[in-house]
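Re: the multi-chain job from yesterday

Posting the exact lines I submitted so nobody has to dig through the queue logs.
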Amino acid sequence: MKRKLYAVIMAGGKGTRFWPLSTAERPKQLLKLLSAKSLVQETAERVAPLFGRKNTVIVTVDEQHAAIRKELPRLPRANFLIEPQGNNTAPCIGLAAVELAARDPDAIMAVLPADHWVSDGRRFAQALKESVLFTERENVLITVGIRPTYPETGYGYILKGKKAARGNAGDIYRVAGFAEKPRAKKALQLMRRGALWNSGIFVWRAATILESIRRYAPAVARGVERIQEIARGRRLATLPPKDAAAFRREYRKMPNISIDYAVLEKAGSEGRVAALEADFGWSDVGNWNALHRMLPKDAGGNAGVGRRLAFRSKNCLAYTDKRMIAMLGMENTVVVDTPDAVLVADMRRSQEVKDLLEELKRRGYKKYAVR
Amino acid sequence: MKRKLYAVIMAGGKGTRFWPLSTAERPKQLLKLLSAKSLVQETAERVAPLFGRKNTVIVTVDEQHAAIRKELPRLPRANFLIEPQGNNTAPCIGLAAVELAARDPDAIMAVLPADHWVSDGRRFAQALKESVLFTERENVLITVGIRPTYPETGYGYILKGKKAARGNAGDIYRVAGFAEKPRAKKALQLMRRGALWNSGIFVWRAATILESIRRYAPAVARGVERIQEIARGRRLATLPPKDAAAFRREYRKMPNISIDYAVLEKAGSEGRVAALEADFGWSDVGNWNALHRMLPKDAGGNAGVGRRLAFRSKNCLAYTDKRMIAMLGMENTVVVDTPDAVLVADMRRSQEVKDLLEELKRRGYKKYAVR
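And the result, structure tokens for all chains:
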């Protein structure tokens, strides 16, 4: 695609939901959950043919910088933007937009979480291309929506309005509104009404998202503008120490808020957001249950990695590095074996792994808890 | 008690049911399941005050000899009788009887499995003493029966006949018959009719059990007599090499059969067996479920050894050496972590661990399978 197109990969997440496989030192995007490559590597390789390595920018945090660069050794050093702390997606995207608008005032950016999964790369590429074309034609914010395959309660939903364009990868709709993570009954209703999963993948002009931040999120905009003043058009990754320190100071002061909440919900109600209805085998791989859904399974519905035996067991997931995992008479159970800890959980309660970690912390098992 | 009294501890069992904690090299009697001592140590120390170390004899197998001696360093070397292969209890007891009858023609022997648990040592001692007194008065075979506390399907049952004597540790009854491991409904009936668990603890004269073997189990008797001829009154553990080899050859030829089946059932039907109805907190600790029943539990019914967290979980058992075991939303589940393997099983199906091991073997995971 054209030179002014950039991919922004957000790779600062902690991913406690895959504990004990994921830890503070080994966040989800570094895990090889579904292939021989880490999720962040998969994401970078998915966008490289579309945007080129020179135009692929990573936003990550201090603690993960070294590990992420090791995963992506062929990306230019200047393309790693480092947050001094994770501030959720609005500041992160604002930061990337500052960088890209300085590189090219016409820059169009595709924003992608580092730790999602896409099974149909061809349709994914087509969806991004068609989103870019629509952004060039109409200067709106595009969010990529996913046609639901089941009533997931762990995702937010996008309510479709009028159709705005037809496409091969999926039609584009005006966004009528957003729905937060619903309860089971509501999720079914949303799915039936044609609502889409909110994937967290966005396409827009850098200038347009900066303008939208100014309009809808003044608290975020203040930080963004100060960083813009500090950078004065230079690349953020290579600022001289004094300016870098100033940038970090400003970033720390920014509010912790998502782009959906800070900008998209409000912009949507003013008709400035469109959604491409995509279908490229997407998952946010949000927890063990989601992972089990995507892995190849035996006749009993059992899946896993490493030496394992699911004996007289159904719908189980076993992850092991060295040791044999032997299950007997288990159902819907995930077993994860690491050098430090063994997790045995009801897979349908995978969302509660974060509560388990809180409890570990409370009991003084700091070594095992993530932060 | 008197000099002619001997304890015979049968310590040759394999105990696959505690896999992966128990293995071929680490059979159940060597495990520290319920205290800081191994089960065989506990058993030896339980009988030492009654019989003395000089009169405590261990019967074990080649593979376990070194490990068992290490557990019991204070027993005389001549008190370790080594089976060249495990042949079940009838040959094992015949062998011990040959040894003890040679030491003392009036020898009375208490036979005890090495891997059982007794929580009330005082009542246990009393039960053995009263059994010995009854054996001296009436020359019968005594089997120690346990008053059931629930309808266990994993034990054989003893059907009580007429009361033969009153005792402090428990009354003694003529044995009317034996029932094999029953199904659930039958177990309840047996318990209601006052039947006793067959503990596998016996008291009798060495001469009497030898005579009974001759009478009821001629195939076993042949081997016993040949060994008697080879030994010619000498201690089995210190026979010169040529005689030791001959003894081993004969032992290998003996049939694999239990003392219950070979002798007691038949002797019982001829009125030659009595049962003491005991109640000393006994368990054969037959599997993970039995172990869970005996361990101290938290308010949620969870028990275990090592670093563990049973979070939003009920009636679980966790055994770990080094790693943390974290459970989430589990019920009736046993998790055992060892350096080689992790077992996760429905505790109510603990009896099926042996099938799991067969399956492991079938799949070529020989390293993990027992044998």
